Amino acid sequence: MFNKILIANRGEIALRIIRTCKEMGIKTVAIYSTADRDSLHVRFADEAVCIGPAPSAQSYLNIPAIISVAELTNADAIHPGYGFLSENAKFARICAEHGIKFIGPTEEHINKMGDKATARKTMIANGVPITPGSEGLIPTVEDGKREAMRIGYPVMLKATAGGGGKGMRVIRNEEEFEHLWNAAKAEAAASFANDAMFLEKFIEEPHHIEIQIAGDQYGNVCHLSERDCSIQRRHQKLLEETPSPFMTEALRHKMGEAAIKAAKAIKYEGVGTCEFLVDKNRNFYFMEMNTRIQVEHGITEEVTKLDLVKEQIMIAAGAKISQRNYYPQAHAIECRINAEDPFNNFRPCPGQITGLHLPGGNGIRVDTHVYTGYKIPANYDSMIAKIVAVAQTRAEAIDKMRRALFELVIEGVKTTAPFHQQLLEDPNFRAGNYTTKFMEDFVIQSPEN
């Protein structure tokens, strides 16, 4: 087992990893930018080292600086969390070259599955259904236009190194192609230092359902059932739940087997997620594989009683996983609380939290790194908390979440909590009648109304 783990991330996920490490008796090293010097992950790690100024490129994406800190502090492993360098094959390779264990898949696995264009080829070769799209990366805008005509509009333009909705655009006709191409490439370059793009057929009004998987160093793979992530805005997830209200037992079995097949095809090592689009007839198509822990991993933990961060660490240390699959033993819903104004087109609202009360009670979990007096920086993602409600039935989980949101108090900045309160009252949501198009039609009522 590792003696000391450096956490190459910030905020909520860094604090989440520290908690599991402390329970396992593993020392932790936090890195932080100058904008994050007052974050809780800095306070609760055994050691903390400033990695650079606020911009990500000079801090959380600065590979030489991170490796230097790992060596100076004698860390024998690095946990990348999600985002930043979590799916960066070069970073995984450099960790290996320096004798530091990357807690995640190998460079080869990331290249095969973390790179979305390569993942599509791998899925085709192994009989996993995928959405129609380009056979590889698209070198120029003119090539992209030709591919779009072949595939048929509308198409989805995607960054091959993307995640979190970054570097993605829906293109509905040739006239808007070049503008959206340029915008997506610029966003991908800024977010991932990789602006390579590919195209997929855009499936109208699908369900976005993902399967959590885990694989060890010995070829064993299991799945931990599904999460429904269809409530999203501009490809950014807002709420997730498990099990999916759209899922059937037969579909759960088929998608779980497809996800296991995908992981076994590359002898995948670590925790990962296969994401699928599912149409109204319950035909499913592989979309991508995230070779890292997901933001929404907590709801899977709550219904399976597994610690997925612990599983990551154990797998990286050479442990074997259970060869049985896991299915939900309850219902869990997660609301992402972002520092955004839902009544002003979800405009980011960085600033200082002047008052805070977090909900609690039976069946409520809150993952957050903020506190009264904490200043939310403008440099990073706006998510400041995740609230998870767990109950035996979906209806009970919804009502428990409504109660938790009623208790939540965050003063000094605007948050998305009022949006979630309205969402949970919506008849279509309560009936489980929603797709990825839900937010296009959902009208947020302003407080004045």
Structure description:
The chain is of the alpha+beta class and 449 residues long. The chain has three domains: 100 residues, Rossmann fold (3-Layer(aba) Sandwich), CATH 3.40.50.20; 70 residues, ATP-grasp fold, A domain (Dna Ligase, domain 1, 2-Layer Sandwich), CATH 3.30.1490; 235 residues, D-amino Acid Aminotransferase, Chain A, domain 1, CATH 3.30.470. 33% of the residues lie in helices and 26% in strands. The longest helix has 17 residues. It is globular, with a radius of gyration of 21 Å. The chain starts with a strand and ends in an 8-residue tail after the last helix.
Strand order across the largest sheet: 13-12-9-10-11-14-21-19
Distance between the termini: 57 Å
- The top-level CATH class of the largest domain is Alpha Beta
CATH homologous superfamily designation of the largest domain: ATP-grasp fold, B domain
Largest sheet: 8 strands, antiparallel
Record field, number of beta strands: 22
Give me the number of helical elements.
15
Radius of gyration from the alpha-carbon trace, in angstroms: 21 Å
What structural class results from the helix and strand content? Answer: alpha+beta
- CATH architecture title of the largest domain: 2-Layer Sandwich
Shape field? globular
Q: In percent, how much strand structure appears in the residues?
A: 25-35%
Tally of domains: 3
CATH fold category name of the largest domain: D-amino Acid Aminotransferase, Chain A, domain 1
Average pLDDT, all residues:
94
Poorly predicted residue ranges: none
Helix percent band: 25-40%
